[in-house]
Design brief:
The protein has 102 residues and is mainly beta. It is 4% helix and 29% strand. A two-stranded antiparallel ribbon has the order 1-2. The radius of gyration is 14 Å and the shape is elongated.
């Protein structure tokens, strides 16, 4: 035996919390609908990443659930500092974009 899968987790939006799965399709690109979306700064055009916590730490207070088209974003923290639809951690305007093709 090579190994055992004990948990299956998908992250529909880059740098946000993800969702537990019972099953998923897998291709050469990886898990179906995993990291297919990203948040982009409207000011800089750069993809937001939790690798830069000073700018984007609030991404980790959001969880994403993959839908047929897009994702459902849910606030995980009791007191968010910024609106997830319109601003980034530092009040920066953001947009959600397709991260890669289906």
């Amino acid at each position: 035996m090579l190994g055992t899968v004990t948990a299956l987790r998908r992250y529909p939006v880059k740098s946000m919390l993800g969702e537990d799965l019972d099953a998923s399709d897998v291709s050469h690109r990886g898990l179906a609908r995993d990291r297919r979306l990203a948040v982009v700064s409207r000011r800089t055009g750069k993809v937001a990443s939790a690798k830069y916590p000073r700018l984007w730490r609030d991404l980790l207070t959001l969880s994403a659930e993959a839908l047929d088209e897009g994702a459902r974003i849910t606030l995980s923290a009791p007191k968010p500092r910024a609106s997830p639809r319109t601003t980034g951690s530092a009040g920066t305007c953001v947009s959600a974009i397709s991260w890669c093709c289906a």
